[in-house]
Design brief:
mainly alpha, about 120 residues
């Protein structure tokens, strides 16, 4: 996926995540999961869908997204709202210096270097 397309996808998805985290709906995180894994929705300014860009690794993408959403749901239940927002943002602060925060195929398969190792 070209960097420009990846950046457009990440920008759109970040906006969706902010809307979800700012909502008070009970099952809002699972709506974000459905949005992430919808194979038919055309990604704004990307000219394709999850099926187009994720062909060959859709299973890994689904496992990654489901694991993260389940993790967020668990901690949202355990933490105060303000603490949960810090928890949700913390993995993105200073750790994703390449691919605009998108996991690489190696990351999805669990064979890539840890984010700290990528920093050098």
């Amino acid at each position: 996926m070209p960097d420009g397309v990846m950046f457009a996808r990440n920008t759109w998805l970040t906006r969706q995540a902010f809307d979800v985290l700012g909502s008070t709906r009970q099952y809002r995180l699972y709506g974000l999961e459905r949005l992430n894994l919808d194979r038919d929705t055309e990604w704004p300014r990307c000219g394709g869908t999850l099926t187009d860009f994720g062909w060959g690794i859709l299973g890994e993408i689904q496992k990654h997204v489901t694991k993260r959403i389940d993790q967020f749901a668990y901690f949202e239940e355990m933490l105060e709202p303000e603490d949960f927002l810090v928890f949700a943002a913390a993995p993105q602060i200073g750790t994703h210096i390449d691919h605009y925060g998108m996991p690489t195929v190696a990351d999805l398969r669990g064979s890539g270097p840890a984010p700290a190792a990528r920093r050098g």
